C-alpha cells in the first residue's frame, strides 16, 4: 500500500511537479493549496506524512502546523524560504519534524521524506530502554518520565532514543543529525538545538539531565 502524503503549497506549478515526482517514486499524494485545507486534511487523518509550505493563503503554514499539533503527531516536513531562520525555528518549536529550504529539488524532498518515514518505523522488540526515570519502548515509540507519558514528535523520540542509548557519553550534533534526522548536519543548522530544547521542556526538571557540551553536542547524564 502506498504511503499517503499530504502536500500543501499554494504554488500550483511547483505542487504539480512535486506531486508527479513523488507519485513516480511510489507515494500517493493529495495536494492542497492553502493552510486551512492543509490543517483540516491533516487533522482528519489518513496521511503518513505532511509537507507544509510556510507561505500560504487563508492560514500560513506556521498556524496550520499549530492547529495540526493540537490534534495529531503525524510527521510534518516544513518548506521554508532559504535563509529564513525565524520561520524555520518557529516551525521546529511547534513540532515540525524537519524542514527543507526552498527552492528544493524533488530528489532532495523525497530523500528527506524517506529519512523521516524510516525513522518512524517501529523497531524490533528488545525490551524497554531505561535511563534514570526515563523509560522508552522503541518498538511502540512510547516514552515515559517518572511514569508520565511524554508527548513527543517522531523526531524528538528519535533524538531522545539516541541520547538515552548513549547515556553517560557525549553525542555530537553530527551524530545526532545522522542517526535521528537521517541526514548530514548542515552548516549553521539549529534543528538539533531546537528539538533538544523542546525535549527538555517536556521532561520538566529532568531536562537538566540533557547537558550541552559546547561546540560538540549533548550528554545525557545517568543522574
Verbal overview:
This protein is α/β, with parallel strands linked by helices and 223 residues long. The radius of gyration is 17 Å and the shape is globular. The chain folds into two domains: 4-120, Rossmann fold, CATH 3.40.50; 129-220, Arc Repressor Mutant, subunit A. A hairpin with a 4-residue loop joins strand 7 (134-137) and strand 8. The chain has eight helices and twelve strands. The longest helix is centred in the middle third of the chain and has 15 residues, at 106-120. The chain has a five-stranded parallel beta sheet, sandwiched between helices.
Total strands: 12
Number of domains: 2
Percent strand equals 15-25%
User: Main β-sheet, in a few words?
Assistant: 5 strands, parallel
Strand order of the largest sheet: 2-1-3-4-5
Q: How many helices in DSSP terms?
A: 8
Mean pLDDT equals 92
What is the top-level CATH class of the largest domain? Alpha Beta
Main structural class:
alpha/beta
The percent range for helix content is: 40-55%
End-to-end C-alpha gap: 45 Å
CATH architecture title of the largest domain: 3-Layer(aba) Sandwich
Name the CATH homologous superfamily of the largest domain.
Response regulator
CATH topology of the largest domain: Rossmann fold
Specify Rg, calculated over alpha carbons: 17 Å
SSE order in H/E notation? EHEHEHEHEHEEEEHEHHEE
| Overall geometric form | globular
Brief account:
With 223 residues, the protein is of the alpha/beta class.
Keywords:
Rossmann fold, globular, alpha/beta, Arc Repressor Mutant, subunit A, 223 residues, 40% helix, 5-stranded parallel sheet
